Amino acid sequence: MAVIRIPDEGRVLRGLEAVRSYLAHRGIEYERWTPSHPVPANASEQEILQAYAGEIEQLKQRGGYVAADVVDVTPQTPGLDALLEKFAREHWHDEDEVRFFLHGRALFHIHPRQGPVFALEVEAGDLILLPAGTRHWFNLCADRTMRVIRLFKSPAGWAARYTASGVEQGYQPVCLGPDDLPRPDA
Fold first, then answer.
1. What angle do CA 61, 91, 123 make, to 5 degrees?
2. What is the mean pLDDT of residues 126-141?
3. CA dist list (Å): 118 to 23, 32, 126, 180
4. What is the mean pLDDT of residues 131-157?
5. For residue range 67-92, what is the model confidence (pLDDT) as tens digits?
6. Average pLDDT of 41-66?
7. pTM
8. Which residues neighbour 1 within 8 Å (Cβ) at sequence distance 6 or greater?
9. Cα–Cα nearest to 139, from 122, 125, 127, 152
10. Cβ neighbour number for residue 155 with a 10 Å cutoff
């Protein structure tokens, strides 16, 4: 389940409702999908998209998305360091960033127009929708793996637009494991 850290406030939010509420107030959608479509670890992109066809269709209808694909990243992915370096800089997109995590853990730092920067750590079963124009940057967690379903209105609209603000340099790209988390806010 997703975890939110607000470094400038020294706060950590856990739990479905706390995470969902915090994100909703910032225009970000978050859902937790229970794996109802078990697919083998070595399933092809086509098998995954077929297994989640109902959920993908609902998202397409809800958000006007027209395409979906699956991205697999492992430590052996060619050019991984350069790719991660690119997305670890603050940027935004002309269209929504929709991701459903099938495997792995990742960290999105979000820089809202108002309020402090916060880190959203996601894992398998988490669906996030960052609206177009949301300033953010992205890191993988220590195992450097993820398998995600992505949805697009137009893949061209997903090109990163960098802010060159340098704000990301003030925040650590460190994921917390479930055993490392402080107690949730009261």
1. 60
2. 97
3. 10, 19, 17, 18
4. 92
5. 999 999 999 999 999 999 999 999 99
6. 94
7. 0.91
8. 14, 15, 16, 19, 32, 123, 125, 126
9. 122
10. 12
Q: How confident is the model at residue 179 (pLDDT cuts 50, 70, 90)?
A: very low
* Distance of alpha carbon 95 from alpha carbon 157, whole angstroms: 5
Q: Are 129 and 63 in contact (CB under 8 A)?
A: yes
pLDDT tens-digit map of 6-34: 999 999 999 999 999 999 999 999 999 87
Three-state SS string over the chain comes to CCEEEEHHHCEEECCHHHHHHHHHCCCCEEEECCCCCCCCCCCCHHHHHHHCHHHHHHHHHHHCCCEEEEEEECCCCCCHHHHHHHHCCCEECCCCEEEEEEEEEEEEEECCCCCCCEEEEEECCEEEEECCCCCEEEEECCCCCEEEEEEECCHHHHCCEECCCCHHHHCCCCCCCHHHCCCCCC
Q: Provide the residue count of the chain.
A: 186
Look up residue 140 and give its two tokens.
Answer: 């993988």
- Say if CB 33 and CB 149 are below 8 A apart: no
